[in-house]
Amino acid sequence: MQKKHDPNSKLIAENRRARFDYFIESEIEAGIVLTGSEVKALRTGQSNIAESYASVEGGELWLINGYIASLQQAGVFGHEERRRRKLLVSKRELSRLWQAVGREGMTIVPLRMYFNDRGIVKLALGVAKGKKVADKRDTEAKRDWNRQKQRLLKQG
Predict the structure, then answer these.
(1) Are 94 and 86 in contact (CB under 8 A)?
(2) What is the per-residue pLDDT across 132-141, written as a single tens digit (0 to 9) for each?
(3) What's phi and psi for 10, nearest 5 deg?
(4) pTM summary value
């Protein structure tokens, strides 16, 4: 049985570089606190999470350096483009993230920002460990080999 495509669900921004630079150990979904002008800007797809990261500070989770373009129509009620935005997760997930960052030396990397099926903005976060240069080369070699293997299989 096929799922119906929901017009509300839509990918806003993706951090494609994250999987190249980090080993993603686990993923969690977080809500994000936004103003009205930010949501309207996201509906037009004007955002970037490539240079952003998440941090646990003062018992709260924050998205730092995430870019959401400002709207001209918002006028004086606009927003700051690179402001810190609060992320919403449960207390259990927050404590798990805090331990991963503090004890294990992990990083919290945003992977995707999207509208879910109810039209609410969500952020997929990855708990990640940084890759060394040799690991990056190995990942690239595997990807190239898989691409070449697919071409050979296609040719028959």
Answers:
(1) no
(2) 888 888 888 9
(3) -160, 135
(4) 0.77
